[in-house]
Amino acid sequence: MNPSRPSPQEQQALSEKLEQANRQLMQSEKLAAIGQLAAGVAHEINNPVGYVYSNLQSLEAYLNDLFRLTEAVDSAQSLDDLRLIKHNIDYDYLREDLKDLLAESREGIERVKVIISAMKDFSHIEEDEFKPADLHRGIETTLNVVNNELKYKAEVIRDFGELPEIECIISQVNQVVMNLLVNAAHAIEDYGRITVRTRSTGHQVAIEVEDTGTGISREHLNRIFDPFFTTKPIGKGTGLGLSLSFSIVEKHNGRIEADSQPGQGTCFRVTLPVRQPEKNSHE
Amino acid sequence: MTRILLLDDEANILNSLKRLLKPQGWQVDTFTRVDNALQALLEHEYAAILSDYQMPTADGVTYLQFAKQKQPDAIRMVLSAYGDRASMIKAINQAEVYRYLSKPWDDYELVAAVKSAIELYHLHRENQHLREENDRQRAQLKAREEELLRLEAESPGITRVYRDQDGSVLLKNH
């Protein structure tokens, strides 16, 4: 027997190690991506927190005015005194504005809640089991996380078809979608359009992310899935996004393809099976 | 009445700022769109302008640069949810902003900043007004001096009057 050839046990150990290294790489890419998004997410949260906080202080001032009125009920000499106070605190304005103040603040908190829960959905580490999942929900979550990267660059169009639940690791599929969305936004120079399309064809579903960006040149197109290949400036991309997307899709027994016209835009299509094939016992 | 302009792509931000500034009694014009805020610069004179940094159609610095061209006296400020160095440097160097405030803001700090911007605006205006007044008076003075010199050249001694102790005019040529 050739001594350099590893024994089955060693081989098993090596492939387990490789698998573990791959998992770590994927997790670190996810964290890197979240890190890059963090500034944007902070912006998304700072806006609502800003006005809700300020509104609370206005509310305090309003309540102080209202208490002045209610407390005067006991001390006022006549109804006219009360009317005067009511007039002085601009009661009608206060009454109208209180409704808006509360509605707007509720809206702000609601937005923070959505962003936080999207981040949470997104960064799930523990689940790496195939489970039936709603892809549209996953896409919406992802859009919420990357909203700040997109909204100044493009109008996002949702062209969703009817999709069955598909058997997948949704947090990983979300990561693929996030990569495609962020890439699409980076490809757009001024302001463009990003279309997210979903279609179902019986046993398969397809997710497409299409942008009106600069496109990918022919010589780059066959390298985009290579690890560490990037044309982005330092600090903007790790060069791992598409490579990991590729391995995630492969793990799901799907396909990922890119179609690009330089100067007109790029369309990425991810095709995934609805059901994962039964694992062969001798694999 | 002191008029100020607020620009932010988010209406809820503008509403909360309006609530906050209402007790000050200023006329507060709010805009969610850059083009409308540009138009407003042609219609009214503003003491202070507070703009968001990042908006979908144009960034706040570009808007403030335009405002600087149109209304150089209006004091410019940025209210941004990004606190990064690059955006601050751009705001200071390109739009020459008076304050860079961040979201979420502190109510007291924001009101104080707007107040002091308005004060600065009035100070500038007063300064300018006084300078014009000064220039006008100086020009007047200069005209009078020239007239005196002209008269003196025409008939030497005519601009000087000599009087004796009881006030009567003396004629003398030396």
From TrEMBL, chain B:
Keyword Phosphoprotein: yes
Protein's UniProt keywords contain DNA-binding: yes
Keywords: Coiled coil, DNA-binding, Phosphoprotein
Single GO biological process annotation from the record: phosphorelay signal transduction system
Residue spans crossing the bilayer: none
4-aspartylphosphate modifications at: D52
Entry GO MF terms: DNA binding
Coiled coil: 127-154
Protein name per UniProt: DNA-binding NtrC family response regulator
